[in-house]
Amino acid sequence: MKTQVAIVGAGPAGLLLSHLLHLEGIDSVVVETRSRAEIEATIRAGVLEQGTVDLLAQSGVGERMKREGMLHEGIVLRFAGASHRIALAELTGRAITVYAQHEVIKDLVKARLDAGGKILFEAKDAALYDLDSATPKLRLYHQDSLVEIACEFVAGCDGFHGVSRPSIPSRLRHEFARTYPFGWFGILVEAPASTAELIYAHHERGFALVSTRSPQIQRLYFQCDPQDDAKNWPDARIWDELHARLAGTDGWKLAEGRIFQRGIIAMRSFVVEPMRHGRLFLAGDAAHIVPPTGAKGLNLAVNDVRVLAAGLRQYFKSRNEEGLKTYSATALKRVWRAEHFSWWMTSMLHRFHDDTPFQHRLQLAELEYVVSSEAKAMTLAENYVG
Ligand code: DHB
Residue 142's CB: how many other CB atoms inside 10 A? Predict the structure, then answer.
């Protein structure tokens, strides 16, 4: 099999790249270890920056998102028992849209398949070859046959645990990492919305987040031990913990409902530099991870792919390699801004196991500053909307 760009991974990065390349008349093949049903059902994040929404809409895959996504013009910081609104739209002129990542995946898979795009699902043992030559290759098993894909470029969009990043010799990779001593317990609940805007809550029992998926389905998270087991959390214990962390003096109360999905998410910060090796370009989680607190992961993947698609377009139209040469540095600028923002939000809102009362008061002082100074609120807002 031959193509111009072989794309490893059918997550948001790989699928969107394939779609953007198709719009430019560039051929690609996407390979994915999981099945279509699996990738379309995996529960992940849900906050799209304005720039992400605009790119999806402009490239013709935003119709359902525009219809079903929920535009939010602010977020709420809740601490010391009271809520404070950060007016994202007033401060920045931009807003966010809540629309689940797996819905974006469904829209992109459909667009690719309707356009005759090739996605090899349930591919096994994919390996990358000859990345520093002009004719890189991908080999894998698909439907029990060995498939070789000869291409001009490989896009490594296969996430943190994928094969792409380790295909770069370790002496040529610089990795920066931090793991956090906590995770997020995430649930999906059948309940009406308790709040019009997302609530990020700081509490001495730990962080909690109230998000949404639809008028009938809510997404809630609370900080937990990353080694904990979801089995240790019967429904009543989950609700007690959420109510305790969201308690206030203003009478606001979270609505309960049937919990139909639950899981624990680990938290880390990670960046690899550079995001290119020869003819391999990394995009999305294959190159960087942010803790979820700033809702940046999916948006960073989309930004990588926007920059990479432009570089590949320039190359295939005019053999100009400038955009490909600057891809890593351009993408990393945005990555490091988001790394800092996500680390800052995480540090300000979570309970650390070695926290002293002094550190707890510093967090409250910073939160107080964010909600009382327009300059500081603007710092949060402009980073949050992207
Ligand atoms: C959601 C996830 C996030 O990481 C976040 O910061 C806000 C919302 C969500 O899944 O809805």
Answer: 16
